[in-house]
Structures are given as C-alpha cells and as structure tokens.
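Hey, resending since the last one bounced:
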Amino acid sequence: MAIELDMAAPGFDERFAALIGAKREQAADVDAAVAAIIEDVRSRGDAALADFSLRFDRVDVASLGVAIGAVVLHVAGLTHPDSAAVTVGDFHIAFVAVGLIGLAGVFEFRRLPPHAGEVLR
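The structure tokens again:
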C-alpha cells in the first residue's frame, strides 16, 4: 500500500516518524533477496540487469536499445544520399542526434522546481 506524505500538511513530522519507525520487512529476508540479486548479476552480468530492470522498473532495456538503434539507422539513412550505401562514418551524425535528444532530458530536469521531489509517495 502506497503512503503519501505532504511536508506542508499538519502532522507531517509525526506521520513521517511513524513511517520511518515501521518495520515492514524482516532484515534477514531483505538481506537474502539482495544477496541473491547481487549473485545473479555477478554470474549473468548484463542479462541479469536487463531482467531486473524489466521485473522491478517495468523497462525492457532490450526493446529500448532496439528503438534507439532504429532511430540511429533512420537518421543515418536520412543523412546519406544513397541509403543503400550507408557506412560507419554516417552513424556519427546519428549518434550526435541521439545524444542531443538525451541532453534535452537534462534541460527538462533542470526546469523542475527546486522542491519537486519533496512529496513522498
């Protein structure tokens, strides 16, 4: 069950202290789960990270990589007069384009108000 706290609401200090003091999991259970995750990542590497991203974050990093790769290929094809003759050199412009798209996210993050993350959910 999600608990929402608002720092401006009356009684925030008491509700926050109760949340922090509540024991929600057994330490041994958490330790065992974390140890299993670490061991899986050590043994399977990136494949385990991809599986955990899908399981915990609901992000399919394999599909994400394919989508970014498709954008790169498309931009490379657009920048070359003969798309059948696309070479590795043509990908430099495409990678710059994808990098700029990622950089745009940084600027959006910087536009957030200073206290944007203070409401806990």
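The chain is about 65% helix and 0% strand.

Sorry for the duplicate.
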